[in-house]
Amino acid sequence: MRSVLPERRRRAGVVLPFVVVVTALVAVLALAAISKIWRGYRATRLAANGVRAQFAADEGLALRLDAWPAETLAAMSLGTTIATRVTTAVGDSVWVRLTRTQPLVAWLTADVILGPLGTPGLVRRHVTRALFLEPPPLPIVGALTAIGTVHGKDPTTIDGRDRADATDACGALRDTLSLVPIASAALVDTPAGIWTAPSSSLRLADTATVRVAFDQAWISVIARSPVRAADSIPQTLATLPGWHTLLLDGATVVLQSPSQWRGLLAVSGDLVITGRLDVEGVLVVRGRLDARGGALRVRGALLVAALGHRDLQLGAQTRVQYDRCAVQMALASIAIPRAMPFSLWYSPLN
Q1: Is pLDDT at 127 greater than 60 in this prediction?
Q2: How much is the pTM?
Q3: For the purposes of burial, counting CB atoms within 10 Å of the CB of 327, is it exposed (0-12), middle (13-18) or buried (19 or more)?
Q4: How far apart are CA 18 and CA 318, in angstroms?
Q5: In 96-135, which positions are buried (b, 16+ CB within 10 angstroms) versus exposed (e)?
Q6: Which residues lie closer than 8 Å to 71 by C-beta, 6 or more apart?
Q7: How many CB atoms lie within 10 A of CB 258?
Q8: How many CA atoms lie within 13 A of 282 on its CB side?
């Protein structure tokens, strides 16, 4: 009987290379599959971290808008950046920067850098949003807007021309927009002298509509302004760095020299000036204005509602020079950020 042992050994020697090749192919395919799965996992993690960073930037902007620094922002000059760090609900750190490039326009940016959470590198997001600072809609129609009869005498001066100069808060190279010098119910001379009032003044035919607009805006002024109780005892104001808002609450407020204010100065009752008052910004008087006994200088705008009184008295030393930049800088101190009319959202991927 012939032995089959050598033949079997020959067959085993032939099959073994095929087994090795198949095993190698299986190993290569397994490694390829594992590599593909790992790359997919990394891509998924990277996309998830990108979404998390985007959400963190959005949340950082929302937190900054919720704690809007109106007073701090208004106290700083244009172009200055306020940088703060906020923490999201899940613990991500966001740097938020706020820059005002125009009195009523601000840019809000958020920067997020997330560490390698299952990814080989960092994830960054940079989001920028343009905001409009919406102030209360005070009916400022002219350099002097009065819902009543204005009394004056020479050399009382009211100028509605908007002039940009080197001392302007917005810089000399800015756009200008002039208004009428005076918008009021009527203009009359004082019994003590003749007043050569500006010929281009505007007569408010519908004072009721203007008063409704003032009353609606006054609610916002009260809600957003720091209040100082005042009475008939003479008050004194001092200029603070930057632009601020202040509400003097009293039936009759008397201001004496030296009194200065930069920003929005509001008086809830009557205002009597016995000395000198210099205002750069907006002076709002809800009641009657009597400046016959002192000097009134306003660079910006003067608004008198004359509530309860039909007449307001200007003095021989009253000077009102309209300044659009000063008006907007003052109103920005009580403005609220709005996305409209811009509706811009810029988020480049880094």
Answers
A1: yes
A2: 0.80
A3: buried
A4: 108
A5: bebbbebbebbbbbbbbbbeeeebeeebebbbbbbbbbbb
A6: 244, 245, 333
A7: 13
A8: 31
Tokens of 20: 């090795």
Beta-carbon contacts of residue 311 (< 8 Å; ≥ 6 apart)? 148, 149, 151, 288
131-173 per-position pLDDT tens digit: 888 999 999 999 999 998 888 888 889 999 998 887 788 887 8
Q: What is the 3-state secondary structure (H, E, C) of the chain?
A: CCCCHHHHHHHHHHHHHHHHHHHHHHHHHHHHHHHHHHHHHHHHHHHHHHHHHHHHHHHHHHHHHHCCCHHHHHCCCCCCEEEEEEECCCCCEEEEEEEEEECCEEEEEEEEEECCCCCCCCEEEEEEEEEEEECCCCCCCEEEEEEEEEEECCCCEEECCCCCCCCCCCCCCCCCCCCEEEEEEEEEECCCCCCCCCCCCEECCCHHHHHHHHHHHHHHHHHHCCEEECCCCCECCCCCCCCEEEEEECCEEEECCCEEEEEEEEECCEEEECCEEEEEEEEEECCCEECCCCEEEEEEEEEECCCCCCEEECCCCEEEEECHHHHHHHHHCCCEEECCCCCCEECCEC
- Between 48-57, 234-243, 308-317, 327-336, the lowest mean confidence (pLDDT) is in 234-243
Task: Give yes or no for a contact between 249 and 287, defined as CB atoms under 8 angstroms apart.
Answer: no
CA dist 276 → 159, 231, 286, 293, 326 (Å): 19, 18, 20, 9, 20
Nearest in space to 252 (alpha carbons), one of 238, 225, 234: 234
Cis amide prior to 258 (ω within 30 degrees)? yes
